[in-house]
Amino acid sequence: MTQSPTDLGADAVRALAVRWLPCLGDGDFVVSPVGLWLALGAVASGARGATADELRGLLGVEGEAAGEAVTRVGRWIGGTGAVGVATGVWSTVPVLDAFKRGLPDVTFGLLPGAVAFALPDDVFGATDDMSFGELPDTQAELDAWVRAATGGRVERLPLGLDGSEDLVLLNALALKAPWLTAFPVHLTRDEPFTDGDGVTRPVPTMRQRIPAGWAWYVGGATVVELPCAGDGGVRVRLVLGAPGAGPADVVPAAWAAPPERRPLAAGSADLALPRFTLRTKTDANAHLAALGVTRALGPGAEFSGLSAADLYIDKVVQEAVVEVVEEGVEAAAVTQVTMTRSAARPRQVVERIAFDRPFGVVVLDRTGEVPLFVGWRRGGGRAAG
Description:
Layout: H1 10-20, E1 29-31, H2 33-44, H3 49-59, H4 63-77, E2 83-91, E3 95-96, H5 97-101, E4 107-110, H6 121-124, E5 130-131, H7 139-149, E6 167-178, E7 189-194, E8 200-211, E9 215-218, E10 221-226, E11 234-240, H8 247-250, E12 262-263, E13 268-274, E14 276-283, H9 285-288, E15 312-324, E16 328-340, E17 350-354, E18 359-365, E19 371-377
Parallel strand pairs: 2-4, 13-17
Antiparallel strand pairs: 1-19, 2-6, 3-5, 6-16, 7-8, 8-13, 9-10, 9-12, 10-11, 11-18, 14-15, 15-16, 18-19
Helix pairs in contact: 2-3, 2-4
């Protein structure tokens, strides 16, 4: 029996996205809410006590339930050929076998330099049910893992290793999806785009006529969904808000429920959409306190379900990229957590929808409920191609 997206954590991922958006500002960015949720969720499966309570407030899950939810969500997202999902953990300290069993789809290994005496003597006696795994040679091996997991869209770790890490968790997502109906290349031409500073300049803009059913209104925002070919593995939605509106106000319209949507009055629409690439590296560590996570970030954090070592989250960094061109969309994200110890028939009426000012781009799962990638193009991002 197929479980509903709500059972798989869709509500929790959307809630994380809504809370994270105000932290990201109104410049160009792209992030993966589900990538951050999966990475922190895997860590949360080893949290206990007040640390677990804190992470549950952000993620909606903790402890064994977090491990189960991370596994289900990862399998749900990866259940189509359009999206690849991979998670790996490398450590210098032994990781509890129970933690590993709770994350059956996660690969485990050791960081260079991992040895038995990495733990203090009073802890070493508690390692009978721990295992070590195989030792990676260098950071180059982790960089190679990142390249393979993202199809080369992200080339290396978002944050280089400096030898102070006791545990590194990496979550990677990779997406490649052609449009059901490609934009005709010969119709792409420079058209004016007014950025968030009010500066208008020409940018390469794709054009095609779309059925009315591909677009709708949510409040003051216009949402356009561009169907992808294949088995419907993802949904790509562009969101255009009122002039001057920022991403925190505009982007959530992408996953508004059908009762909140108003249809276009026209029978079809002429869509004008800039061809673009967004790539950003986000220090999510700086945002976690604003999201209610503080105990997990310093000595005294309780991750006793992960390891007998006194680990805490030291850094959380995500690198993400999304490219929208005439043929389709490609996207990838790598989230790195570092831990250390102490179509309708057209009618005559045609509407014009021009994404000629800052707008959002959202890639959702097949149900249109789980935000995989969320981006905002203010105007500073480079054009694709």
